Amino acid sequence: MKRLIQVSVLGLASLSGLAFAANPPSTKPANTSANTCTGTYPSYWQDIAPKFSGMWQGQDISNAPTGAYSGPVFKLSDAYPRQPVDDKANQPWRAAKFDAMFDPATSQDKKAKLAKEYAWLVYNYALSGNVNRPAQTDFDVCENPVRPWYHIAFQTYDPLSGREFIHGLTREAPVTFSIKSGTGTAATTMWAVAIYNATAAYTLGQVWQKDGTAKVPSANIHFDEGSVIAKPLFNTATLDQLPVLANMPRWNANISDPSFCATPDNATMAEQSQLCPRNYAKWNDVKLMQFDISVSDKRAKGTGWVYGTFVADGRRKANVKDQWQRVSLLGLMWGNDTPPPGQLAYNFPADPRKNGFKEEVIFWDVVDELNSFGGTGTVQRMGHLGSNHRLNGPADNANSSCMSCHGSASVPDSTFTTPPLLAQFSDMTKQSVALVNGLKTQGLDRSGAVATENNGVTFSEMDAIYFANVMASTSFNMTTPTGKNVMGDGVPAYPNPAQKTWISLDYSLQLSMSLKQWMQWQADQAAQTPAQSRKFVKALRRAQ
């Protein structure tokens, strides 16, 4: 089978080797009075600090403040804790009352009630000290007066997705929505920024060092219990296109074309900077559409993680005073409700709207509210959810789920290859396929795309891979029950030839993507690739 990506890398073997400190966790929160933004790592793509200028040499500069700009400038929070931190005293969702949520025998009504309370506790934990501060930009986390929060380093080498300089947003998925106005569809882009609590940031600090370098993990990594990651996602649609975004938080950001600027696959980084310039004055504000949370929780027996998605609900909650509270919980999940062997994800479990899921909760009134703004394209409505209505937000792919994507998070190999976030991003057999009546090897996925079984891998085998429950810090399995590697022989190809399985990054796709950027920067440096010739091997992004 053809490799997904083939690129040579120089000198990556010396970057491997990651050891974790065996220190007991501190029960005291990290110092909240200290400024956590040190300037050790670049804060944004085209960061003007002299020590980072080599990263954007030869490019057209459109992502740096000018003398005429007087607004906020993003700073990366990168003073990662060097000792474990347990913030349990401030995490009420860890109480025993929530144990029942993870019990398959718990009634759907009780499970939904607990899921809603759990998710809102996490959401408000993430907001505390980060919003509604006098004379302070929301989510400027450098000096949070309640608890420290951190960003992931090195989302700054890719010209197309790299952080913008005002809020630190990175470009994510292109999303086409079905709408009621105009042509019936709206081509939009998602821009997002994630923050990590001190518990999670301790793990980041095992990779991103005090001296501004990375130790690429050579073994599976693990985020400690109580790690919290929160990510607001903003969209470029207008209010005419998506009225549900009315009354939501909106940011002026230094983005590229709102309809998702694309460049030829062979474009150099210098050409990308020319073809997709950033401009905070030209484009409209981005608006909060989605807010994702993820929590390391050992009660999630199959995965070790809980994922939740809040969505914009600006019309129904227009009278809520705090704009950050004008969201509603779309759902919470801690497993993929894995199909039994031989069954397909698109219709398992049966009728989840009526019968519910075992490992997640969906709030159907919120789904209906989102879909009420859409046109006739059912899978392009905002409430499309994931495969067979597993949890996935408006920004996410309808053929997957939150956990099926994030479970694939792995260290890039020597060719910058990682497992695709979903099978549709490759030439493999697709996932979440409904068979054509009377046929066994041909069907359509939820987007309506034609799908065939490829390379001897069946649809049910691919579903079994992507909708398996991957335990935290466990290698993502890309083989069928018969042992066939669906990505091809010799994949992954790590510097250590004895490493035959994917090195897990414990559900952190951001860590995987940032390491890919770091590794390409190091390879370009080692090879002394001229600035005008440098090309970025694109990350496999969410798409719809």
Automatic annotation (TrEMBL):
Superkingdom of source: Bacteria
Signal sequence coordinates: 1-21
Keywords: Signal
Protein name: Cytochrome c domain-containing protein
Organism listed in the record: Undibacterium flavidum
